[in-house]
Amino acid sequence: MKKLSLLLSMMAFMVTFTMAQRTVTGSIVDSDGLTLIGANVTVPNTTIGTITDTDGNFSLSVPSDAMQLMISYTGFETAMINLDSKSNYMLILIEGQVLDEVVVTAGGLEKNKARIGYAIQNVSADELVKSKEVNIVDAINSKVAGVSVISSSGSPGASSSIRVRGSTSINGTNSPLFVVDGVPIDNSEIGAGVGGVDQSNRAIDLNPNDVESMTILKGPSATALYGVRAANGAVIITTKKGQAGEPKVTVSAGYTFDRANKFNERQSTYAQGRPLSGVPTWRGPETGEGFSWGPAIADLEFDGSEYDFDSRGRLVAKGTGNGTSAQAYDPYDFFVTGKSYDLNASVSGGTDALSYYFSGGTLSSEGIVPNATFARNSFRMNLNSKVSDKLKVGMGLNFTQSGGVRIQRGSNVKGVMLGLLRNTPTFDIGNGLVGQEAADLTSTYELENGNQRSYRSGIYDSPYWTVNKNPSTDDVNRVIGNINLNYMITNDLSATYRAGLDNYSDRRNSAIDINPGRDVGSVGQAVITNRDINQDFFLTYTKDVSSNFDLSANAGFNTFDHRYISQSVTGTTLSAPNFYHISNATDLVASEGFGTKRLYGAYGTVDLAYNNYLFVNLTGRNDWSSILPADANTFQSYSASAGFAFTEALDINSSILDYGKLRASIGKVGNDGGDAFIYSTTNYLNQASISGDGFLDNNGFPNYGTNAFERDILLGNPTLRPEKTTTWELGTVLKFYEGRLGLDVNYFNSKSEDQIIAVDLSATTGFTNSVENAGVITNKGWEITLDGTPVRNSNFSWDVALNFTAMESTVESLKEGIDDIGLNGFTSTSVDVVPGQPFSVIYGNGFQRTDGGDVVVGADGWPLVDPTKKALGDPNPDWTLGFNNNLSFGNFSVGMLFDIRSGGDVWCGTCGIMNYFGTSQQSADERDDVVTFEGVVNTGTADEPVYVENTTAVSLADPNGGVGSYYRVRYGFGGISEMNIHDASWVRLRNVSVGYDLPSTMFDNSFVGGINIQLSARNLWLSTDYPGVDPETNLTGASNGYGLDYFNMPNTKSYSATVKLSF
Amino acid sequence: MKIFNYIFIVCLAIGALSCTGTLEDVNTDPSRLSSVDLRLLLPEVEAQAANNMGFNPARVAGIIMQQYNGLDAQQLDYNKYILGEDAMNNYWRTGLYSGVLKSAQVLESQATAEANPFYSGVAKIYFASQLADAASMFGDIPNTEALKGLEFVKPRYDSQESIYAAALTMLDNAISDLSASGDVSGGGDIIYGGSASSWVKAANGLKARYLMHTVKRNAGNAALAIAAADASFASNAENASFPFETAQTGNNPLAAFGQERPNTLGINPNFVAMLEGDPRASKYYVEVEGVLQYFDLGNSNLVWAQDDSPMPLISYTEVMFIKAEAQSMTGADASASLAAAVQSSMDLNGIAAEDATAYVSGIGSADIQTIMEEAYKAYFGFNFLQTWTNYRRTGFPALTPSADASPSFNPSGVVPQRYLYVESETQTNSDNVAAASANQGGSLLDNTLWAFQ
Lengths: 1063, 453
Description:
heterodimer, A: mainly beta, Immunoglobulin-like, 22-stranded antiparallel beta barrel, five-stranded mixed sheet, 11 helices, 61 strands, 6% helix, 47% strand, globular, disordered N terminus, B: mainly alpha, Serine Threonine Protein Phosphatase 5, Tetratricopeptide repeat, two-stranded antiparallel sheet, 20 helices, 8 strands, 4% strand
């Protein structure tokens, strides 16, 4: 056990050496006289410290005025050495109450990791902060096996989705539960869709600098204690607390630059226009021409005429104008360098009776799109008081204000990327300027007559118009607070009460300005309030029954109350331009929506430990949920897990294998289906709304001078049952070579049944969906972590950690006869679940194929489209690997995190549209190609086909056939889905950082305790064959549908510098 | 349940906010109702139906019939007859079945339960007309097993023939309900303000329409159609016109499309050629920057592209064209009916009397071709589906199929004869879709439907 704790403790530890006036040496042993390797030796309240070597010895340079050394070692009580004139010390550490690596598990219970029979993984606070991610979800990326994170875009404040062991829910959330200091907090994303703006997932309101530790609980064994809301795993966050002693002050300041890291390739050879009578012809913005299938730019020149859209005039054939050659412009000049700064300060300390931690953080980002911003200001106060020997009281309070200016994106004629990538090479959107400068000048995007200046004369908004005229802001004010009381009833029994509040309001304003001749303008105002109250009361009993048998047990109950209210007013037909207030609208529509939910839970847990090598953990929980029908609203969750440290039990003392543990667990978690199914047990009459076009907005009543109601098209279900997920897992932990190498292998297999799904019904039943228990979804996979220390000596160490995940989510069945349920996307291409296929497939039109898989080509040489849609791509990677390196030498430390993803498709809708309009490089490259499509031609009949190889060559872009005959146009807008599905494998350097601790000698006789400087870069390098933006992207934010790219905002690479001072 | 007692005690003790009301109360939506009066159900039925008549099926029919012209994006695909299973999916789901048909059925059954013949009559009119129009687009569609919730999760498709028969029966029932009903005031009737007798006339006009849809199969329908037409409207003032409004949420869908999808749908040059010398031409389209547009924001000249352009469920104009066609088929003189039909169209478009008279006097003989060509011009802007049905029945006006016709959905390249069944049906009711396709000779755009064979 000692060796294990040693090895685990090394993982997050950074070695630093400092020059000092005196060198202190020593050795650390345990009560049996065995050396302790890797014990922390530090000078209190400084960053000076080291760890003991393989012989248990240490050597440390300390300031001459240092009075004490602090020796800590997981599993042992921390001890102090009082420094005197001696230079060599020996210390015996006493095994402590807290054994081995401590992890915080379900219910906020601290447990010894070695005793746990299921898979969990920690992310160190240092790793979180070092990543320089704004969103704490992104800070986890590539660091935990079995956890996938996808950031939706590089927009400031954009959401990221997190999945633990894949997805199980079709309509509900698949996000794990975020728990801060024992209190669940909301991580929803409101308003994600194919259009609109990038929204935030609400975990972004947490300041990573406040985090002391983070533990990811992966399976139902770990989460049975949180009940339904943790059915997708849990992220358990503990914030920093004060320690008795002098006040500790830290201040850090960081500055970050961002650039877009990858774009679609654009052509710069051909002009706006299309073939007319067989001749590619320039057609200017005033014609509304969308295509860039015009003549070669090299063959054109300006004519010098008076022209609204270009000061040099219209384009004419070379030799017929004024001799000024036409040119291609690069619309990517629109992007600017994003800039962020962050400032964080904290002070902590206390006495034995009262400890405190106060912090404040501010972060302000300007995006790579002009005018895009995000800011977060947060304050935290943690107080812990030992009122008496028996009573401890604690409270935490966190206030966050966040929000910014969001930019229209995605499938949206106002979207920045849509306007930019469809823009023809011969139109200068910046009108001679670029970036912020262009954005700040009205004449860039507005003509003198007030009409919009864009390549299609306002049909698609100029990106510069959008960032000025279509603003969207959000302003979140959030309070997360908790109180907890702990009373020791006897030495063995304690009672804990804990209450938490998570309350936020999100005020959103958005406007679409008047676009003369195109849009009458609109303004939307919304206030969303979300309030969650969570309470726990539990008793904890711990007893060393005998010298080799420990027992601890826990029993309690929980209440959770959720209230969501969304109030909005939308006003249309604006009166004055550039005025984005509701008073400027002529017609108003107001609405209000609710979501209320309550849960009760009763739970218990028993932990047994025998001789420190056999551990058994049993949990059980009963929930009552308001979501389920009143007569069937209760359900159970339970789990059993065991860990067996065979090296300890069998007393194996191999020189290679230090420690080995086998673990197994099985658990069943019930679920109520989640917030998506609030109010789903009955049928309602809704305020009526007109829908059914797909191209037009739905319009709600009151309308036409009256109000109206209609029956909801979702069929409620009064006989709903709880869902259940059963998981078993097997794993092993092995430690080799005195802990220099560690391996953790885990296999999990889960099966979710009776899933509550809003099943698609044939609309001819009068309902488009009915809420039902249907479907079986399985998730299985391997989670492997390997950590090692290839090199470690007194002045250099190199630690590596690998996280490997390979998993398979399969939709085994849906409801009988239901072949497909859409998760997200478009009518043409969507992300769906289909029985027998992976959880989520890219679904759409493909080419006709024979039974043998050959593409069927028509007699004219063009491949034929299959009218019936099918599953075409799998957005799930085959495997992912995070490879983290930490090197430290002297006062330097270097971290490098590589992220490899193999497999997984992304639909590049952007590519299809750019090919269609002729703005992509591909559309230029293949413009003159003559191709014989691989495939077969049916020379028989439809019923009795006779296939022969296709030999008919076709010209991909023959001007004589007209633009409609072009390969990239003939299959319709953006081509068919199959033409745009691409493998999104990647290798990237997700993070690299260099830290430096200034020598402590510099601060002698000053109040400064230490200064650390860190330089880091995010996404510095990316290698992928994906043709669009960075394939780590998602059109629909943190939703259940992923794998869609349709004019998504680009991702970013960033460079940052941070200085941290401690006092 | 003992645990609840504990919870309750603790909650009381700490004065928690969370423990009021039962779990069942918590799960009751405060923003919705469980029952409403008939007068609050009818407005949505009328509005949804009126919108449906300007939604995608109507616009695509306009493109197929070469009045509209796709300029960009999906509309351009429609020019090429790229009309896959996704094209009418939204309409089928929330416009039609889980839209107006669902609401009409809810209204009808509540009205029957409350013995209120006005609402049951109006509900039947909407149900019958929206169902029969859908049959004209798709052929066989569900009816007898439709709209029964989980009782029939996969409704069977009824033959197009039986749909028309059911619609006509239902219209007869509507007429008898409404004949037994007095007027209803303040009852949510946006079109007629509760006038039962007006609805009887509308029902007769619709009867005439669907009798003529099936006249190729039953020549006797022509005489019945004349009788129905005679029981219908006598002037434009009686039109069952739905009044769209200038507030953006209540706009005519064709105007809304012009605004929300700018420059994607325009006017076909063939139609412009046909309107040569027609006084309505300037009311139908305008040329902007060399592009023929049906919509031009702020241009009040375009009668059918205004935010508040009306949408008649059935119009006097159509009733007169139907009568003219039926008269022509039965050998009667159709010229008076045709002249009345065209004159009413001129009036709807606000054409000056002398221009209208000049045009009407120059129409020529009232043969089927002339009647159909005049109907083609007169129906523009509000009645695209009937234009397409007329064409599929009679072949007039003669059209040259699109040169770019995509072979994937339409191997023979003809002017499309139907819409494909929608993808949500092939995903949720595939066996019945397959059976219906088999019953109609396939699932492509060039299968001629039963009524038009």
